[in-house]
Hints:
Strand order of the largest sheet: 20-15-14-23-24-36-35-32
Amino acid sequence: MSPHSNTPSTALLAVDTGGTFTDLVLLREGRIATLKVPSTPHDPSQAVLDGIAEMLESHEDFFLLHGSTVATNALLERRGSKVALITNRGFEDVIEIGRQNRPQLYALVGHRLPSLVDRDSRLGIGGRLGPRGEEIEPLDDAELGELLARLTETGAESVAISLLHSYADDSHERAVAAAVTESGLPLSVSSELVPEFREYERTSTTVVNAYVSPIMKKYLGRLSEEAGAKRVTIMGSNGGALPVERARREPVHTVLSGPAGGVIGALTWAKRAGTDHVITFDMGGTSTDVSLCPGRPLRTREFEIAGQPTSIPVIDIHTVGAGGGSLARVDAGGALRVGPQSAGAEPGPICYGHGGQGVTVTDAHVWLGRLPAGAFLGGGSELDRDGIRGPLQEIATALDMTLEEAAEGILSVADTAMERALRVISVERGYDPADFAVVAFGGAGGLHVAELTSRVGSQKALVPPDPGLLSAYGMLASPVTRETSRTVLLSTDMTDIDRVIAETLDTLEATALEEMLAEGSPADALTTERWIDARYAGQSFELRVPAATWTNDFHEAHEERYGYRRDDSPVEAVTLRATVTAPPPPLAVDRLDESQGLPATEACRVVSGGSEVDAVRVWRRDLRSGDRIEGPAVVQEYSGTTWVPPEWVVDVDEWGTLHLSQAAE
């Protein structure tokens, strides 16, 4: 693979930080190099810097593209910064009241995570704007003068500013920001992040940004200073890349950074394999991320992480706590459980030999022979199979099973959790999995994809080359994007609606173009799209449609989604959006040579269906276009392993992608 750019001698390095491993993919002068290094949870940047030092020569010019989980983990683990929220007096508790949604529908006493901002750190001030930006009550200059002292008393490390209706007029928020600038604290201003209505979601997004801002500034600052890259770009949650300066200002856009790269990479390889209707299945060390792509990545703004809504554009990804490092246990009722607790990178699964004590999904695969002990990381590391026996025996004894039955039971429980995730993003949304191919990646995806493909009723599975590094590769294939938006609340029964929409979209597009050009994107490569979030009058939520023919498109989209349309009802243009995109560098992929006969294989024994069966092992590097391997078989490679069960076959296409399907009777 080779990028074609104005600086062909400059290397491109993509880095994806995961819970167990940090993955690096280097493109240099038309050649690809890969590396997996153990993640360093105490300081994620250290693993990145270690990988850079190992892969690149000193003083070598390179661009760094990075997918970070730092913001995600800070939210999940509740170890962000202390935030002060400045809002309208009387609305200090919006962040805690939230919506009337009940995630635990049948619980007599529901449980909600506490707010990211404690009550004493919510500062209410006078002043009020109306929904059209009209000033109902002016700001009090004396109160603004006292605001800095009040802020200091909270001991805050970061500040979130969210005032009512700032999407219509941001003058009050700008005045408040100016009043507290001398504090030197990072400021997150809602009208800059999310100039849209719905005060709870806008406030929550601003608070989340403030919560992770100091951590991300420190982390990205160290990478920018010590990595030695000519330019650092961060993967955004919407599938596009962000300049590091913007990621430091608006880290909320990175909360799905790594998984978004995987979706883009999976769809890129699926298109080469001849299909664009795919379900992406990314199984890593600590979690599994799935997403449905009916020809394109689906995006949503109804996203929640760690109980906090974030109203930013993200690829629609569903995550479950099941991965290769997920720990198995027998609960008090005698049932076998797997995850969401994980062995992580330290100490990791037992088979890694780093002091792990609990049996993981990876350990179960090693015990069953599906993950060969001598083939880990391309044969460069030997796994400890004998160390698994004792801890696995404890689980087997508690369940009154053999060691092999217990190991297969662990895999079955993990598969059930991942099957539910696949159904959530397909069947529960009206899509038939039979119309989609499952694209497996991540270090453990290939070990489970055949079973899950069969369970959900899909007809075929794909495993791209270097599956354990696909998220990093996806960053190379991701465009740079900038989306601007503004809530307008206009109805088709207004006389000048077309003019207002056109003028507003012109302004939004010009803003996005200006920012993209300032960040170094070439003007002749930029493309723009205009969108409108629309609804019928009286509805609570919107559908996004292209702006050019938005009313007709909305009627059709509404009928497709809900089964009916109301052509005689007014349609409201709620929020206008403009997206500007710069394409990624084109990546050339070499075709494989044609098959000249059966590849070299090695006989082995693997446990399947409760008994040992004869199987073959083959290195993926020995496969050629047109090769076919019949299961049971194990396909080994540096970044992952693919398990081909009995009565399954794997075919290799010209690009090196594995096509798994059930053998014809």
